[in-house]
Specification:
Elements: E1 10-15, H1 21-32, E2 39-45, H2 56-70, E3 74-79, E4 84-88, H3 90-95
Parallel strand pairs: 1-2
Antiparallel strand pairs: 2-4, 3-4
Helix pairs in contact: 1-2
Pfam families: Methyltransf_21
Domain Methyltransferase FkbM: 9-30
InterPro entries: FkbM_mtfrase
């Protein structure tokens, strides 16, 4: 990222990895802690259909969204038909001179 001039992170990260999003979010929390990954916005396509076991999908999604909240990401909008959601890190975006809270972007 430094070679490309993104020392402070990137503006948006799209996560569409066919069920791997749950592991990626766990990894982000392990690596970055409460700071989360260095981005203002996350666009996540949830693929719960790849998880097996009774209640596994809803538990994994609930755990992943709780981790996103702990890392400072607020849900902004979800498209239910395609299971895609945008999450916003207000404090990080404010540091970059972007919208300061979710209401500024709606």
């Amino acid at each position: 990222m430094k070679k490309l001039g993104h020392e402070d992170g990137v503006d948006i990260v799209k996560v569409d990895i066919e069920g791997g999003e749950f592991e990626v979010i766990r990894g982000w929390e392990e690596r970055y802690g409460a700071d989360g990954p260095p981005t203002c916005q996350l666009l996540i396509e949830w693929h719960e259909r790849f998880l097996t076991g009774v209640g596994a999908a809803s538990a994994a999604r609930r755990d992943a969204e709780a981790a996103l909240l702990r890392m400072g990401f607020t849900p902004l909008h979800c498209w239910e038909g395609i299971q895609e959601c945008v999450y916003w890190h207000c404090a990080r975006c404010a540091e970059r001179g972007e919208a300061r809270d979710v209401d500024d972007v709606q």
